[in-house]
Amino acid sequence: MHGMDGYLTMRQARRMVEANEFDENDIVVDVGSGFGGFLVELSKQVAFKNPLIGIELVDGLVEFTKTRLRKEGIKNIRIIKGSALELNKLIDKATIINVGWIIKHIDDDELITFLKAAFDVLEPGGKLFIFEFAPKTMSKMAHRAFHALKLRTNEEIASILESIGFEGIKQNRYAKYWIPVGKLSLTAIKP
Ligand SMILES: C[S@@+](CC[C@H](N)C(=O)[O-])C[C@H]1O[C@@H](n2cnc3c(N)ncnc32)[C@H](O)[C@@H]1O
User: Fold this and answer.
1) Mean local confidence (pLDDT), 72-89
2) Per-residue model confidence as pLDDT tens digits over 129-170
3) pTM over 0.70
């Protein structure tokens, strides 16, 4: 386990498995794979036939996770160094794209670039899962930590997803949050 983030994303992976979101033929991509918490847990829960893919921007986290996977003998996860905004240049296709706690750091143009790239690489019927903090009345402490970030509502993101062509957009209950902020948890399907 690697800190609270890893623990929460492991729980998120388990909840998604329990809800039958995955099939062993899926091509799963975690955008912003961090320490690999989500992917490692998922790889233990489902016997995927294709390697799971992590996209991570930060060199240190890419190296850390590669080392961790080697040490733990986990062979079916690949970590690619790169940005969410270039997802369609980094991978050819996916049937599941998971993205957690990145989009508060990017502006609206970048968000659209990323979501369009995700739409491009998803196979028909493929699913996108987006998790992030949403705006809400916050404690003073949370407000200080969050004032510089771009928090968006489920409705705002749903409308962008719809304009790009996603369907079946709905809120899910997979994410756990460790602070009292609003919850952005969406599932969207590429038709
Ligand atoms: C909260 S962590 C996600 C945790 C991870 N999914 C897990 O399973 O534990 C967010 C990660 O996204 C990475 N990140 C932030 N912006 C990114 C971008 N534009 N492209 C790729 N990765 C990014 C951060 O470096 C960080 O490791």
Assistant:
1) 97
2) 999 988 876 666 666 767 778 889 999 999 999 999 999 999
3) yes
For residue 60, count other CB atoms closer than 10 A to its CB. Answer: 8
What is the strand order of the sheet 52-56 is part of?
Answer: 77-81, 52-56, 28-31, 94-100, 122-134, 182-189, 167-171
Alpha carbon 92 to its chain's center: 17
Instruction: Give the CA radius of gyration of the chain.
Output: 16
Residues 6+ apart with CB under 8 A from 35: 2, 3, 5, 6, 61, 64, 65, 68
**What spacing in Å lies between the alpha carbon of 101 and ligand 1's midpoint?**
7
Q: Is 37 in the pocket of ligand 1 (CB under 6 A)?
A: yes
- Cβ of residue 30 lying under 6 Å from some atom of ligand 1: yes
Class in CATH terms, 3-189: alpha beta
Domain boundaries, the chain: 3-189
Tell me the average pLDDT across 167-184: 86
